[in-house]
Design a protein that fits this description.
The protein is mostly beta strands. It has one domain: Lipocalin, CATH 2.40.128. The chain contains 2 helices and 8 strands; from the N terminus they run ααββββββββ. A hairpin with a 6-residue loop joins β1 and β2. The protein is globular, with a radius of gyration of 19 Å.
Length: 133
Amino acid sequence: MKLYFVLSFIILSGCTSTPIEKAKDYHVGLWDLVADYCDETYELKADGTQLVISHPEVSEDQYTFKKFGDTGFYAWEYTVIEYNNKPSCNGTFDTHLGEQTLAYVKFKNDFTEMHIYEWPNEETHIGGYLKKR
């Protein structure tokens, strides 16, 4: 009987959510750009692909998302694998097939906001941020 309670405790304690477990899928989902200069949507999928809609531009990218040491930053690296050759929401043609991007992000407001930085340093914020739907 004692073994049953010990096993039940182990199983139940494994089902509780800790902040670290909550962060496990922190980036997967739909994100909207919050900025005055453009309207974009990012769909980050668990399979390592992301769809970026910057109407009328649409691109599909292969990405990696990794914790950057104990800094609170995450390295977000992606490569454009498909692109529809349309201008982005600001009218520019600055996306190219095979283009690689590396940015650093920091989550805020209980993982509902993703702030983007050029380097893992708060002073290099690139403006705007992504808000999870």
